[in-house]
Design brief:
Blueprint: H1 3-17, H2 19-28, H3 43-57, H4 61-79, H5 90-108, E1 116-120, E2 126-132, H6 138-151, E3 155-162, E4 169-178
Antiparallel strand pairs: 1-2, 2-4, 3-4
Helix pairs in contact: 1-2, 1-4, 2-3, 4-6
Length: about 180
């Protein structure tokens, strides 16, 4: 997993919970907290940090992941190693993530393994999207989808349905509820 995910997670934890909680999270996870945005790290370490933060704050790990995804979306958007993508709405941007952004990320970082999105049953206001990832971070994906809708100033209702026990395959049903 690319280091920007870790560096932004730590920044968000510090901003939302303060330095003391951030340090306690790192200590409890036996983590030095030393990451670089361009490095690559084992995603299990991020899971340990999330579980540690959940234990400290009594906030469910799923909620922490979702909030993180929503808050990190604009940062990741600015960090994209590609020219501006011409889109004006949430659905078109989500499609471009799979059709273009993930391909470009793999070119720049051959060791990267972004999730796979498979789209079906799309209309102007609804979309069904299957998320496939060995990292099993569907709640982060859900937060990213919410952050994307926020960015385009659209209201989005999301239903998340795990398709297997590990949640490496999750189906999202998205409905735009306003302009």
């Amino acid at each position: 997993m690319k280091g920007i995910i870790f560096t932004e997670f730590l920044t968000i934890v510090e901003n939302q919970f303060g330095l003391d909680i951030s340090q306690q999270m790192l200590d409890n996870a036996n983590d030095s907290g030393i990451y670089t945005a361009i490095g690559s790290y084992d995603h299990h370490q991020l899971i340990k940090l999330i579980m540690s933060l959940s234990h400290i704050t009594n906030i469910p790990a799923s909620q922490l992941q979702q909030t993180y995804g929503r808050l990190v979306f604009p940062v990741l958007l600015r960090a994209l190693p590609i020219p501006d993508i011409e889109t004006d709405n949430t659905f078109r941007f989500i499609e471009k993530v799979e059709q273009y952004i993930h391909l470009e990320v793999k070119k720049l970082y051959p060791d990267a393994t972004p999730p796979k999105f498979i789209f079906s049953d799309q209309t102007q206001s609804t979309m069904t999207m299957d998320y496939h990832s060995a990292r099993c971070m569907g709640y982060v994906c859900m937060g990213l989808l919410e952050g994307c809708a926020d960015y385009f100033n659209q209201s989005l209702t999301i239903t998340m349905q795990p398709m297997n026990a590990t949640q490496s395959h999750v189906r999202f049903s998205l409905t735009l509820t306003g302009d």
